[in-house]
Amino acid sequence: MEITERHHPVMEQVRKLNLNGRVIFTDAIAPDDLPAIYKGADLFVLPSLYEGFGLVLLEAMASGTPVAASRMSSIPEVVGDAGEFFDPYDEDNMYDVCQTVLSDPERRQQMTLLGVKRARQFSWQKMAEEILNIYEEVSGT
Q1: What is the pLDDT averaged over residues 44-60?
Q2: Would you say 53 and 42 are in contact if contact means Cβ atoms under 8 Å apart?
Q3: I need a surface site. Which of 4, 57, 60, 76 has the fewest CB within 10 A?
């Protein structure tokens, strides 16, 4: 998301909280650069209200980045026990979950290991095999 307005409310909040240099606004990111960006993050946070699948969560976990996400839609199914969840309608809950993860290096390390393992469970090959099994089951072959 490109935020170019100097007085945009988000940019004003970043300045107010003295987070200049810690919060970076970018244009579109090249797909080849995403793993390095994920790796550079202490925590990937997805406060989505609806997610069709959650590919960004798998990308973050595959890169070794701990994940905190909303407890909505398909997100818990994708993340499994590898991440932490919050209510996206409750800012205090979201803050508490993120703060808890960020203040616990052992938990972040555990989430990193679980996340990498979880991301490996999803692949195009596995998806193709499961679809083929469904077709075979439906067709009776």
Answers
A1: 91
A2: no
A3: 4
